[in-house]
Specification:
The protein has 346 residues and is mostly beta strands. 3% of the residues lie in helices and 41% in strands. It has a single domain, classed as Neuraminidase (6 Propeller), CATH 2.120.10. The protein contains one helix and 29 strands.
């Protein structure tokens, strides 16, 4: 884990005695408070985010918010607080509340785990979500009604995963996921770490796990292009803070790995955060978290601007009517209305 993210988590931990809450507003005031700013590097951003758009704060009080997913059948958002081992729920009508506690590790002794909760969340089969489960070192499915968890994959080559971080599902049912060591105390030096690499994997519907990439230092987020011919993987390494792109074959194999965007020069105190999670719109634009917030990139990696939340930013996903980008930003949940629409996997 980078020093910048460690400091963010350490600072936010001071909020642990405070109940996570929606932002309270006077009854007569209908708008949420705003934070940060939208930085425009190219006029083309105006076609995706209106010039008068703002960043609204919806809830706060989390240690490290992550993995937002919109639940269309119900009209609410779920997101993880990874260190505190919880999933939270937010809706326009009800605000924020705890949805699942614990969300990941549920044993008696969590020593050896630095982040024992769930991380990335995506919509699953009807009435469920799919989860990158740090604490159980697994890919899991959770029934939303009963909150019953089923572990779908826990090992590769007879060895436990490190701590699956984020995931995306293709239209054929295959799940692609990343497996850095962020959930383990000591990370790469953890005595619990069994895999010799921090990999990118594919989990097929029949349960087969295939290692696709073993050469990235800290693979983090993961997403598919709308046509499912490109797989994107941001790398949260302060020494090489890049967004990788790979050609994806119909068989689910990767080739032509390349740096789509190198954000290393921005890493530092002036722009907190590292490449992490991302969302894709229907036209293939990337909304990828990184130093200084959410970077908006064209499919060929050109920067259009960024959503600067003012804090290290972990992940984002489209939700609601498909034109609202929900962003987990350190201790807060925020959103931005857009003029574009999320892709099927967003």
């Amino acid at each position: 884990m980078s020093l910048s993210r460690r400091l963010v988590i350490a600072g936010a931990a001071a909020l642990s005695a405070t109940a996570c809450r929606s932002v309270a507003m006077p009854e007569a005031q209908t708008a949420n408070p705003t934070v940060g700013k939208i930085v425009r590097d190219d006029p083309a951003l105006d076609r995706l985010i209106a010039p008068d758009a703002t960043i609204e704060k919806l809830a706060e009080g989390y240690t490290w918010s992550e993995g937002p997913v919109w639940i269309a059948d119900g009209g609410y958002l779920l997101f993880s607080d990874v260190p505190r081992n919880r999933i939270h729920r937010w809706s326009p009508a009800d605000g924020a509340s705890v949805f699942m506690d614990p969300s990941g590790f549920d044993g008696a002794d969590a020593s050896g785990y630095r982040e024992p909760g769930s991380n990335g969340l995506i919509a699953g089969p009807a009435g469920s979500i799919l989860m990158a489960d740090h604490g159980n070192r697994a890919i899991a499915r959770v029934d939303l009604a009963s909150k019953t968890k089923t572990l779908l994959a826990t090992h590769y080559n007879g060895k436990r995963f490190n701590s699956p971080n984020d995931l995306v599902q293709a239209s054929n049912g295959a799940i692609f996921f990343t497996d850095p060591p962020y959930g383990l105390e000591g990370m790469n030096a953890s005595p619990l770490k069994e895999q010799p690499h921090n990999g990118v994997y594919r989990l097929d519907p029949d349960g087969t796990v295939t290692l696709l990439e073993d050469g990235l230092t800290f693979p983090n987020g993961i997403a598919l292009s709308p046509d499912e011919r490109t797989l994107y993987v941001p790398v949260s390494d302060p020494e090489r803070a890049v967004v990788m792109a790979y050609d994806l074959s119909p068989a689910g194999t990767l080739s032509n790995g390349r740096v789509l965007k190198d954000l290393t020069a921005m890493v530092g105190d002036a722009h907190p955060g590292l490449p992490d999670g991302l969302a894709i719109d229907a036209s293939g634009h990337l909304f990828v978290t990184g130093p200084g917030g959410v970077h908006v990139l064209t499919p060929d990696g050109r920067s259009l601007g960024r959503i600067d939340t003012g804090s290290a930013t972990a992940n984002c996903k489209f939700g609601g009517d498909g034109r609202t980008l929900y962003i987990t930003a350190g201790s807060s949940l925020v959103r931005v209305r857009t003029l574009t629409r999320g892709s099927r996997q967003a």
